[in-house]
UniProtKB/TrEMBL annotation:
GO molecular function terms attached to this record: DNA-3-methyladenine glycosylase activity; metal ion binding
Record-given protein name: DNA-3-methyladenine glycosylase
Keyword Zinc: yes
GO terms classed as biological process: base-excision repair
Species for this entry: Azospirillum palustre
Length: 191
């Protein structure tokens, strides 16, 4: 039997702080949202520990996740990123991050912010979110979208029901809980 994240993360130097202070917690800060999307895209095919260990390097490489700056990247910045051993040097992932920043800039025209776009579409089932992200962003398959939304409280399941962090998250009324309290039954939290 494998350990769950809630059992394995506490006390770990990288997983612990993420599990206890970020995972499942909502945010309206577009930089936080963009950072989480960038990290989830780069995690594809790798361990989450690898990404957490490289998080500071990602922050430095992508100008502290400043969406406007990343959206303005050209060929010189792309080449710099592909040569940066501190991050994941995958052309498809680098290109997706830059293009997704541009798409977030465009979303501001219709929704004011990335957060506004998420809130305008919530609640949706995971399958509906995956379709929406697939039409809107690049390199956002089911696992990436699911983890991104779960990590930000849009989908349930970040923590087990008996995890002490779950009580904290519930006390903050994450978007998935607010939707369920309002009668949305498109998903149920994991037990």
């Amino acid at each position: 039997m494998s350990l769950t994240y809630c059992a394995a993360a506490p006390g770990h130097p990288h997983h612990g702080p993420y599990h206890e202070g970020e995972y499942g917690f909502s945010s309206s800060d577009d930089r936080v949202l963009f950072e989480r999307l960038v990290l989830e895209i780069n995690q594809a095919g790798l361990s989450w520990l690898t990404i957490l260990k490289k998080r500071d390097a990602f922050r430095a490489a992508f100008d502290s996740f400043d969406i406007d700056r990343v959206a303005a990247y050209g060929e010189a910045e792309r080449a710099r990123l592909l040569a940066d051993a501190g991050i994941i040097r995958n052309r498809l992932k680098v290109d997706a991050v830059i293009e997704n920043a541009r798409r977030i800039v465009a979303l501001r025209e219709t929704h004011g912010s990335f957060d506004g776009w998420l809130r305008a579409h919530h609640p949706l089932s995971k399958a509906e979110w995956v379709k929406l992200f697939g039409r809107t962003f690049r390199f956002t398959g089911g696992e990436i979208v699911g983890e991104f939304l779960m990590s930000l409280g849009y989908l349930p399941g970040a923590h087990q029901s008996d995890c002490p962090v779950q009580a904290v998250v519930l006390g903050l009324n994450p978007p998935w809980k607010a939707a369920m309290d309002a009668g949305y039954r498109g998903y149920q939290p994991k037990e």
